[in-house]
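PROTEIN DESIGN WORKSHEET
SECTION A - STRUCTURE
LENGTH: 399
TOKENS:
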């Protein structure tokens, strides 16, 4: 990256970091079970809600308990279950039309990050009916208060239940872009491990490493605060202590609950301190090839961490100490290497490959352009890279 662009990026990031204490961040109110929702909605005098989910979640019967509970409480529940892995503008518009047709007054995102992101985008379109999602992409372009938004994560990974971001894919161009604004933070988040019980092992693995990526990228970036550092390190500790138990035994509710808590903490951390090039590259892959976001993050994470070199060594050493594989007497380089090796070992134990199928060499320049555009100047990464430098990661993980 040339010097002028570097200076611009770092100045931009410095301004945002200085503004952190005065920005209107808030945490969603936490609930421990979906059983708490009917009484909450009745208290708020809401008689009709839109439930945004996907077909697999609904066919597994995971939403059935909540749907029955809402009916027993006299609350009408319209269900949109067509959300795809990387939610599209079509998904959002179809769900919005259902919300209006059924005269709903609240939106529940029930599922992984895709369903919750779709629910957020529906809320944004309800709040600003005259603006398209494309006009809201980027930072601080929603402004208006959304209808009551409730997030019920069925995966311990995306952190979408606590973030101000929704990532949407344009159905025509397949360009994937984030929408970031404070009204997108859900009003309530339900961290109920029971809804994660039936997750396939592969989803537990990929979404768990997605949460790890959130925590690591937030921690090693240059816009951290005492609060985000604490959230990120606790998330990393919880993930290393619980992900293998959750993966090997899906009925281990202690591990499931701890992973949900880790995901929430990691989401809180990156909401304020942002992510890095792992996410930028992963988003471009999701938009072009529909690559699951957690898988892309998991595959990319150690490659990107290694590429940061000594600019990330100290903070990666910190994380190695947190998970008990290094101590303060080691060099930062040695500690960082141990942490990256631990991430590689996690990938191996969870059955996550080092490559992603379907990446085409002819697409790489465009993908790198999208990653560059998303990340720079916003993401306060340890080491700045432009589109040409970002190309390396696509080639690294290409079959």
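SECTION B - SEQUENCE
RESIDUE ASSIGNMENT:
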């Amino acid at each position: 990256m040339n010097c002028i662009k570097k200076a611009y990026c770092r100045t931009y990031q410095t301004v945002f970091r200085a503004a952190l204490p005065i920005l209107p961040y808030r945490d969603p109110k936490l609930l421990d079970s979906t059983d708490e929702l009917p009484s909450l909605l009745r208290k708020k005098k809401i008689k009709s809600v839109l439930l945004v989910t996907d077909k697999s979640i609904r066919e597994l019967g995971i939403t059935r308990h909540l749907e029955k509970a809402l009916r027993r409480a006299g609350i009408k529940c319209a269900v949109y279950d067509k959300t795809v892995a990387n939610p599209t503008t079509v998904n959002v518009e179809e769900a919005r039309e259902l919300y209006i047709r059924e005269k709903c007054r609240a939106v529940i995102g029930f599922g992984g990050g895709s369903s919750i992101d779709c629910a957020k985008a529906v809320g944004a379109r309800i709040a600003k009916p005259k603006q398209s999602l494309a006009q809201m992409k980027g930072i601080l372009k929603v402004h208006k208060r959304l209808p009551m938004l409730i997030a019920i994560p069925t995966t311990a990974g995306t952190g979408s239940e606590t973030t101000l971001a929704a990532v949407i894919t344009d159905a025509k161009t397949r360009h994937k872009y984030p929408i970031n604004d404070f009204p997108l933070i859900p009003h309530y988040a339900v961290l109920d491990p029971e809804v994660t019980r039936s997750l396939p092992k592969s989803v537990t693995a990929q979404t768990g490493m997605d949460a790890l990526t959130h925590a690591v990228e937030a921690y090693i970036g240059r816009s951290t605060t005492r609060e985000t550092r604490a959230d990120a390190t606790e998330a990393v500790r919880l993930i290393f202590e619980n992900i293998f138990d959750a993966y090997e035994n899906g009925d281990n509710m202690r591990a499931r609950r701890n992973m949900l808590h880790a995901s929430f903490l990691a989401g809180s951390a990156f909401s304020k301190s942002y992510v890095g090039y792992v996410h930028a590259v992963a988003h471009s892959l999701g938009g072009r090839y529909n690559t699951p976001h957690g898988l892309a993050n998991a595959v990319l994470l150690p490659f990107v961490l290694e590429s940061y070199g000594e600019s990330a060594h100290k903070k990666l050493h910190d994380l190695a100490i947190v998970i008990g594989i290094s101590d303060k007497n080691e060099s930062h380089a040695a500690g960082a290497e141990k942490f990256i090796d631990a991430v590689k070992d996690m990938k191996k134990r969870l059955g996550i490959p080092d490559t992603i199928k379907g990446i085409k060499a002819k697409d790489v320049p465009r993908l790198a352009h999208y990653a560059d555009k998303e990340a720079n100047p916003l993401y306060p990464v340890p080491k700045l890279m432009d589109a040409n430098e970002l190309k390396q990661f696509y080639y690294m993980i290409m079959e």
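SECTION C - NOTES
The longest helix spans residues 226-248.
The beta strands are 29-31, 48-52, 76-80, 106-111, 138-139, 148-153, 165-169, 176-180, 188-190.
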